[in-house]
Amino acid sequence: MDNAYSYLESVGKEPSNLIKGLQLIQSTEGYVSDDAIRAVAKYFSLPEVEIEGVLSFYAQFKRVKPGKYKIALCDGTACHIKGSPLVHEWVRQELNLSPGETSADGLFSLETVACLGCCSLAPVMSINGRAYAKLTRKGLVKIIKEYQAK
Amino acid sequence: MSTIKTLRVGVASCGIASGAEDVMALLKARANSIPVVGVGCLGYCYAEPMVEAVLEDGSSVIYGNVEATEKSVDNILALGEAGRFEVPPERKKREKIMVLALAGRVDPVDFDDYVAHKGYDGLKRALAMAPEAVVNEVLTSGLRGRGGGGFPTGRKWSFLAAKKAEEKILICNADEGDPGAFMDRSLMESVPHQVLEGMLIAAYATGATKLFIYCRAEYPLAIKHLKIAIQQICDHKLNHLGDRDVEIVIKEGAGAFVCGEETALIASLEGQRGTPRFRPPFPTDSGYKGYPTMINNVETYGNVPLILRDGGAEYAKVGTEGSKGTKLFALAGDLKYPGLVEVPMGITLGEIVFDIGGADRTKVKAVQTGGPSGGCIPVENFDVPVDYDSLKTLGAIMGSGGMIVINNDRCMVETARYFLDFTHRESCGKCTFCRVGMTRMYETLERITKGQGTEEDLDFLADIAPKIKAGALCGLGQTAPNPVLATLRYFRHEYEEHIREHKCRALQCNAMVKLQIDHDKCVKCGLCVRSCPVQAINADFEIDPAKCTRCNSCLDACPKKAIYRVHNGDEK
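Structure tokens for the assembled complex are given below, as produced in the milestone run.
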């Protein structure tokens, strides 16, 4: 198999481990590239189209290389009620990004998620897994500026 | 005065989001010899980060909204008066803490701590009984599935127990996908051993050989704690059930709401696309890789150790005739005290929302239960007892436990649109009614909230909703139209206003609203002008509605509260 993906060996070859294998690739590379699909198909002895089918089914899998800072905007019920649509608009204004996109400088990528599980602190977003609670426009702009300055 | 024996810091996800890790680091640095322990969730999310100082005499002092500053940490170490947290007395009176008794009180990943609090007593007692007797104990308890369906747990167990097969599979459904629900996350993060103990008891009772936990990948802390706890179980050989060793495996979901449905979950466990399939065969006949399989929810398993420890009859003393025990609810939305609460079945909705949640009686108009599969219940019906059957009569469901309080400045049409936006995207696409029907419903609601709705749209919604419910294969499609049906039932006037008068009484739907400055109040400080991201406010402090995106930045920035949302056409 392709040497670049030899770490797949840590996952068993049974097809029931396919999702686990794809998760391993994504956590290592940040996304699942065409090359990775070919390697996974070979490893599990499955057709490539099967892999693509599973990838496109689950929201977690990314086919586009994400930015250095991954912004996840929560749009769960509590966040929605507490104004997450406004937060989306603020991010769009600041970074000119829509969900699923990565900024041209590769610094930020944006996705919306169903729930980060911090509903009582709504509205919430996370950047690279770190959660930011009770967002206001001022607070959000400050956070984004901090990451830009890093 | 007693001295501090231990310091507990709530470091579940909510706490961490509020900065509890910084507080904990600082406490550790300054507490000298006093042990600082990270614990799970106490349920008072609004007061995070929280620190509990346990004193030598056994009593404790809790501090809320602790800042990561030396001053605030030293105040705790000196047992100062400032920042002390009191449980709202009404909440104390109404709550019934059984399942969450150890949450926030034990170190989640300390095996001995759990055992010291009667942990694994239930399992020990079960192992001394015949498997059939364990099933009977659960039947006696009257426990019903906490994932929302409410199927009697003991009966489900008896189906699997009756199967003869070389392998039998037990699954814990931890794919808590309902937006607005975090009961399961909290339980797994705070007392992972309790969930696992429930699973081991179930495995013993049903003869299961392999145990899976299917957990959302979005819950990294829960997964981490479960993994540690599973290793501890194996180290202490607690996975040895009478005549066999069982294996416990965690599988991470990959973000698909439909995988909460049991046949979809099994497909996903097998590494495939998580689409549901037709039943029968039911999973207890043919499930994971064709083996007899049983699925219970996290909270259901969390109840099991108590039933075996105290006996089914004792457990059944709490609750109502048809719904026994307690239920966890994730309270969020427009209320003073959001958080995780545990209440006895049969408590009224009003008691939860007003007494425990501290919501404003003059402002609340409805509560949404059951997330996107449930419905809203208007404030007039808040005397309904919370149990599986009563909520159904109102067109809502118990659901897994998400409870969102909605007040007067939220639009019900927009709320319904939001839920359908979620479900139509999460539809797996297998059934036409769900795939196409939900999309058409969503588009219709989108039109109405943009002020482009017609009278026919309402007839269309009322016509297609029951067809989708009848034509869909799985729980997602069968319940997805519920938020629309419930809002149409109780808040039809809001739909009609949007259509006939182009009016959103909650002033939420942007297409029908503009922002306006009250010049009598305005002091021309210019903060609004500077805060506006699209330069829609001119030098005379007039807002250009064509440029304005209704983002509310100026409204938040105004120190004089002189900026309002008003209906298009209205002059303030």
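The CA atoms of residues 7 and 53 of chain B lie 5 Å apart. Chain B touches chain A through 64 residues (CB under 8 Å). Further analysis is deferred to the final report.
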